[in-house]
Amino acid sequence: MSEEVRHIVCPHCNSVNRIPSGKDARKAKCGQCHQALFTGRPAPVSAKSFEIHIQRNDIPVLVDFWAQWCGPCKVMAPIYERVCSEFEPDIRFLKVDTEMEPELAARKTSCWGKCACTALTIGCASPQ
Hints:
Blueprint: E1 5-9, E2 16-20, E3 43-44, H1 47-56, E4 61-66, H2 71-87, E5 92-97, H3 102-108, E6 119-122
Parallel strand pairs: 3-5, 4-5
Antiparallel strand pairs: 1-2, 4-6
């Protein structure tokens, strides 16, 4: 009888790790880079690493599309970080800098400007 596993993408090196369902994922380390899979902070991602996290994580992913110049983003940042520390490892929290990844932000948000100021939830079974 095989044990169920969850596939978790490392926020540091983007390697996909197999974590047994019974193991406390908060303590899990990446098999490739040996860093913690969950840090209690949102992981900044590029367009390439975003796609890996969305396609390969077996947990839901919550993404904040933000910009450094955006006032509402600055207000939301500490709240997003606090929620991240409370809900990891059940949810992967990502941050996309819309100034660094404008094409990704344009594809994944319905914002009029460069900043989405809100989070986009993508479930692990999403067809995205």
